[in-house]
Amino acid sequence: MTRSDLDPLILDLLEWIAREPRSYADVIEAWRTSCPRLTVWEDAVDRGFAVRARGQGRDVLIRLTAAGRNFLREHGRIGDDARACP
């Protein structure tokens, strides 16, 4: 799969995260794969679209970055009210 082949799935992941910060465990459970050709979660992080951030206590949350929010906006998949890391 090429980078652009994964873009629709990466957009789905980012859109899901944009609705509300997700726990790392929830993201990994929903988006991690053992298929080396389907690396949606890994590619989103590698491309700087999402980051791990400290939540309350020991929780690790996954949030959109400004780059992730812009990627969604460029593809018409987000409004201006999405949460992102500064």
Summarize the structure.
The chain is 48% helix and 14% strand.
How would you describe what is shown here?
This protein is an alpha+beta fold and 86 residues long. 48% of the residues lie in helices and 14% in strands. The protein has helices spanning 3-19, 24-31, 40-46, 66-74, and strands at 22-23, 50-54, 60-64. The protein has a 3-stranded antiparallel sheet with strand order 1-3-2.
Order of helices and strands: HEHHEEH
Number of helices: 4
- As residue ranges, the low-confidence spans are 82-86
What is the typical, i.e. mean, pLDDT?
82
Cα-atom Rg, whole angstroms?
12 Å
Number of strands: 3
Outline type:
globular
Strand order across the largest sheet: 1-3-2
The helix fraction, in percent, is 40-55%
User: Ends: how far apart?
Assistant: 31 Å
Can you summarize the main beta sheet?
3 strands, antiparallel
Structural class: alpha+beta
Q: Please indicate the percent range of residues in DSSP E strands (runs of 2 or more).
A: 5-15%
List the helices and strands and how they pair.
Elements: H1 3-19, E1 22-23, H2 24-31, H3 40-46, E2 50-54, E3 60-64, H4 66-74
Antiparallel strand pairs: 1-3, 2-3
Helix pairs in contact: 1-3, 1-4
Keywords for this structure?
86 residues; alpha+beta; disordered C terminus; single chain
